[in-house]
Amino acid sequence: MGIDDYCKKLDSHLTGIDNPEKRLEAAAGILGQAYKVSADEVAIFVLDDEKDILHFWWPRKLKTIGFLPLSSIDSLAARTVRENKPFVNNRFASVHHASIFERVRLEPTSAEKPLPIQKIVSVPIPGTDRVRGAIQVSRKGANVDDVNDFTPRDMTYLVDIASVMSRHLD
Questions:
Q1: How far is Cα 161 from Cα 170, in angstroms, rounded to an integer?
Q2: pLDDT digits (tens, 9 = 90+) for 111-152
Q3: Which residue(s) pair with 125 in the sheet?
Q4: Taking the CB of residue 65, how many other CB atoms lie within 10 A of it?
Q5: Which end of the chain is more exposed for a tag (fewer CB within 10 A), N or C?
Q6: Is-contact 67 55, C-beta < 8 A?
């Protein structure tokens, strides 16, 4: 299936979900399947225009924990929104970044320390007048060699997917 067909199918599926929380959960799950990662390796940020901050919308647990200032120089999500530009970084763990949210246990039953993000793709969510936020897909692991690289095609496809998802974020 090509990306155009995939995006049409995604759009149709998300249109059929009335509840915004369920729609968001479905979108994260679908992205996780598409990129062969867990839904918790998907992050969706929405921009608060008035305060110039990014709120986590997904993972759900991070939604209530914090936010990212758009001015943050240590945040790839903030940079993605500021520059309205997609990024792929297959050496993310070795780059200085806002890692505080990586330390949050997303699974309440897990006794293990959360794995760090090793590789990431980050794209803006388009809006009518301004970027609405960012979508990031990450690959976590103990070491950089434990996970597959993201490709330029992965980034291009995520740009197309973000365009579809922008119509479904309430």
A1: 16
A2: 567 788 899 999 999 998 889 999 999 999 989 999 999 999
A3: 133
A4: 11
A5: N
A6: yes
Residue located via tokens 């997917």: 161
**Does pTM surpass 0.85?**
yes
Residue type, 134: A
Per-residue pLDDT reduced to its tens digit, 64-104: 777 889 998 889 999 999 999 999 999 998 776 554 444 44
Question: Residue 157 in 3-state DSSP?
Answer: helix
Domain ranges of the chain: 3-168
Nearest to 48 by CA among 67, 24, 27: 67
Residue range 46-69, pLDDT digits in tens: 999 888 999 989 888 777 777 889
CA gap 170, 156 in Å, rounded = 24
Q: Give the CA radius of gyration of the chain.
A: 15
Strand blocks (E) in 10-126: 42-48, 53-58, 67-69, 87-89, 117-125
Residue 141, both tokens: 């692991």
Peptide bond before 59: cis, by omega within 30 degrees of 0? yes
Evaluate whether 97 touches 76 at the Cβ level (below 8 Å): yes
